[in-house]
């Protein structure tokens, strides 16, 4: 998830190039020139250029939906094993192991292993610590929370990101950003209250863990952005070193706390966890590659929009395939959160959205329509639970 931050520099350069335009060319000519300059979608070294721009977007969007919905399904399936709750960190250990293997393969096959390490090991040690905190706390929180509640919290990453941006990079945010944060925070509070009232699985430990994961994710995003600007490292290098060092952290932590052998014994008694963890890691890794490709080829606006609706679909899938209590308070509190997300997307992409929507009235109608559609889809859940 946090790997998307690696491409932030490229987005900034794209934005500066658009601003530098003399403004005398027609918008149509600019759009044609921009489309010609956009790179084709390339995943694992395979180009999808022959599908055309529309075909590439459809293929990319479908792949993001498929792989990340499957990722969430596998994650919840693993935690559905009755006694697996205490072993969330061991799942993270397995995930880091597989991500290290995937990063090594990508570095050797895609980048031909020619690029030397550009980021200092000490910096990687810090990035690995943040990565461990992000993914470890996120995985472990699922032992204490419903999956939909975890996803709703992840949707509100903007809150710690803004705090980190203010204190780490001295960034300034608009009024719309702060309104979006208020909406997300309010929706989170109502969603948490709803979960606490109807779910026997709810535990404040899970809230603390997922909150810690979001804070670490916010810090890693800002630190990674500054690091990538300074050292110009490729994605595969960052993945390889961050996850390999993180694997050592988790392994040492499990050995020192005495949790490694019980988790190892449990997984040996339930060997299906090993192949589930492999599939879980593989689909997550491939999903990230498609997100990065979409961001690079189509920009952050479309990528964030697709991933946001993917999260909504993940919540619906969770209610459909896993038995859990349901209340309508989930629907309207979730709608408040997604309103904040849509507002944040608009705030970050005003110029691009303005080119699509010719008037404020059209924009407002579209915003309301999105909320009505989202609300209607969420209501459908009530007929299946």
TrEMBL record:
<dbReference type="GO" id="GO:0005789">
    <property type="term" value="C:endoplasmic reticulum membrane"/>
</dbReference>
<feature type="transmembrane region" description="Helical">
    <location>
        <begin position="86"/>
        <end position="105"/>
    </location>
</feature>
<feature type="transmembrane region" description="Helical">
    <location>
        <begin position="57"/>
        <end position="74"/>
    </location>
</feature>
<feature type="transmembrane region" description="Helical">
    <location>
        <begin position="121"/>
        <end position="145"/>
    </location>
</feature>
<dbReference type="Pfam" id="PF08449">
    <property type="entry name" value="UAA"/>
</dbReference>
<keyword id="KW-1133">Transmembrane helix</keyword>
<dbReference type="InterPro" id="IPR013657">
    <property type="entry name" value="SCL35B1-4/HUT1"/>
</dbReference>
<feature type="transmembrane region" description="Helical">
    <location>
        <begin position="299"/>
        <end position="322"/>
    </location>
</feature>
<feature type="transmembrane region" description="Helical">
    <location>
        <begin position="206"/>
        <end position="224"/>
    </location>
</feature>
<feature type="transmembrane region" description="Helical">
    <location>
        <begin position="362"/>
        <end position="384"/>
    </location>
</feature>
<dbReference type="GO" id="GO:0046964">
    <property type="term" value="F:3'-phosphoadenosine 5'-phosphosulfate transmembrane transporter activity"/>
</dbReference>
<dbReference type="InterPro" id="IPR037185">
    <property type="entry name" value="EmrE-like"/>
</dbReference>
<keyword id="KW-0472">Membrane</keyword>
<feature type="transmembrane region" description="Helical">
    <location>
        <begin position="236"/>
        <end position="261"/>
    </location>
</feature>
<protein>
    <recommendedName>
        <fullName>Adenosine 3'-phospho 5'-phosphosulfate transporter 2</fullName>
    </recommendedName>
</protein>
<feature type="transmembrane region" description="Helical">
    <location>
        <begin position="151"/>
        <end position="168"/>
    </location>
</feature>
<keyword id="KW-0812">Transmembrane</keyword>
<dbReference type="GO" id="GO:0000139">
    <property type="term" value="C:Golgi membrane"/>
</dbReference>
<feature type="transmembrane region" description="Helical">
    <location>
        <begin position="273"/>
        <end position="292"/>
    </location>
</feature>
<keyword id="KW-0813">Transport</keyword>
<feature type="transmembrane region" description="Helical">
    <location>
        <begin position="328"/>
        <end position="346"/>
    </location>
</feature>
<feature type="transmembrane region" description="Helical">
    <location>
        <begin position="175"/>
        <end position="194"/>
    </location>
</feature>
<comment type="similarity">
    <text>Belongs to the nucleotide-sugar transporter family. SLC35B subfamily.</text>
</comment>
């Amino acid at each position: 998830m946090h790997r998307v931050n690696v491409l932030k520099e490229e987005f900034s350069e794209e934005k500066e190039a658009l601003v530098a335009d003399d403004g005398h060319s027609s918008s149509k000519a600019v759009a044609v020139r921009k489309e010609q300059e956009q790179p084709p979608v390339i995943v694992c070294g395979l180009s999808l250029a022959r599908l055309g721009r529309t075909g590439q977007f459809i293929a990319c969007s479908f792949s993001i939906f498929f792989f990340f919905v499957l990722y969430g399904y596998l994650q919840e399936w693993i935690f559905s094993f009755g006694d697996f709750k205490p072993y969330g960190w061991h799942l993270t250990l397995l995930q880091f192991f597989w991500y290290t293997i995937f990063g090594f393969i990508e570095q050797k096959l895609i980048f031909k292993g020619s690029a030397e390490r550009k980021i200092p090991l000490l910096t990687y040690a810090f990035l690995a610590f943040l990565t461990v905190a992000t993914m470890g706390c996120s995985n472990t929180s699922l032992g204490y929370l419903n999956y939909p509640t975890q996803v709703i919290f992840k949707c509100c990453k903007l809150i710690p990101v803004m705090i980190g941006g203010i204190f780490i990079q001295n960034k300034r945010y608009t009024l719309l950003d702060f309104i979006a944060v208020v909406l997300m925070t309010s929706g989170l509070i109502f969603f948490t209250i709803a979960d606490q009232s109807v779910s026997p699985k709810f535990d404040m430990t899970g809230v603390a863990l997922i909150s810690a994961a979001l804070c670490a994710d916010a810090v890693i995003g800002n630190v990674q952005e500054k690091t990538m600007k300074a050292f110009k490292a490729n994605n595969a290098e960052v993945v390889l070193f961050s996850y390999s060092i993180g694997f050592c952290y988790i392994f040492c932590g499990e050995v020192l706390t005495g949790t490694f052998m019980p988790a190892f014994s449990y997984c040996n008694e339930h060997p299906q966890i090993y192949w589930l963890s492999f599939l879980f890691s593989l689909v997550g890794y491939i999903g990230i590659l498609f997100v990065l490709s979409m961001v690079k080829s189509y920009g952050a606006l479309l990528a964030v929009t697709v991933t946001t609706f993917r999260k909504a679909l993940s919540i619906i899938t969770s209610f459909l395939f896993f038995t859990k209590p349901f209340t309508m308070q989930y629907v309207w509190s979730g709608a408040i959160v997604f309103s904040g997300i849509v507002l944040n997307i608009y705030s970050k992409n005003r110029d691009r959205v303005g080119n699509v929507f010719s008037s404020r009235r059209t924009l407002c109608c579209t915003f309301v329509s999105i909320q009505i559609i989202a609300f209607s889809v969420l209501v459908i859940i009530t007929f299946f639970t």
